[in-house]
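Q: Sequence in, structure out?
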Amino acid sequence: MGRLMRCTLAAICLLCSLRAWGQSPVWAVQGAHNTVYLAESVHLLKSDQSTLPPAFDRAYGAAHTIVMELDLSRIDTDTMQAWMLQHGLLPESTTLRDAVGEQLYQRTATEAGRLGLPIEALQRLAPWVVALTLTDLEYLKLGYDPDQGVERQIERRAQHDGKEMGGLETLDEELGQLEHLTPSEQSRFLELTVDEMHDAESDTDDLLAAWRAGDTRKLADMLSSEYGTFPELYRALVTDRNARWLPEIEGFLKGDHDYLVIVGALHLVGPGGLLELARRDGLTVTPVLAK
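A: Exactly. Output:
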């Protein structure tokens, strides 16, 4: 899989052998009177491969409150589309061709056409929105379904069981990171996405196997290192958000009931990941093993 496509699946936006350093996709942080579980999510899964690792059941069963990047119980498709229409459009007098240049525009048109989307439908969209749109369509074409992803599965269970739900950030905070990339950074994001479209399937099995096995070191190697040539995107998608989330997660440790915090796998592993930041703050983080 191309490096950016692989990172997009695991980060924002979309899982063999155990290794000693990482043994689970779920981690426990002990508070004075409770436990906060940190779970690595993949936002898209195929329906025939959607069973979650057993550690999720253990953490979910213990948790009173479920916290995700966004509180999905309060955000529906209409809300998301309205936000995109407000924040993801180019200025009135600018087209996608104007924004990215003729060569990248033509390459984007070719990939969009392959996925069944006329390039005319993308004319008013900012390059970062086009990049996410193409990525989503590619994974849907390959059979990945957001309704089978970790968050949607856990959301349905939590609503059925009457568990409290919350979010670490708003839509403005999550997608605004991409909205505020410079025009050249947005074009580069789209270019890298187009470059890697045809490689999207090749390494997905390795990624999902590492996630299921809790092979945190392999995930870190596969994911965080891929952003070495695009640190601005890594900062926008990962490290800035982690720095905002950590105080809130540490606040959960002062409570009297358990929390399950579910974030994209890339947010836990690698440089600036939540596991590293928690340890740096003196917290003890241990893998949650299935019974």
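The CA atoms of residues 31 and 253 lie 5 Å apart.
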